[in-house]
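Recall that a protein's primary structure is simply its ordered list of amino acids. Everything else, from secondary elements to tertiary packing, is in principle encoded there. The following example makes that idea concrete.
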Amino acid sequence: MRRALTVVFGVALLTSVLAAWYAPGLIAWYYTPPVELGVTCKPAVQWGIDVYRKTVLAGAFGGVVLGAFVAALLPRPKVKPAV
C-alpha cells in the first residue's frame, strides 16, 4: 500500500509540474490572433509565462528538498528481528 501511494503521489507531482509548464504556452498559442494588431502585449505575456515557469520549477525543487529534509527528521520504524 505504501509503495502504491508513493507512486500515485509521485506521478501526480510530475504531471502537475508538466501541466504547469506547458499550459501557459498552449493557452498563449491557442488564443493568438491570426493577424498582428497595432498594439501587442506579446512580449509582456511571454515574460510573464517565463517567470511563471521558473516559479513552478523553483517550487517543485524546493518541495523536493523540504520533503527530503522532513523525511530525514522523521523517526524510522523499528523492525522486529525474525525469530
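The mean pLDDT is 79. Residues 44 and 50 are 10 Å apart (CA to CA).
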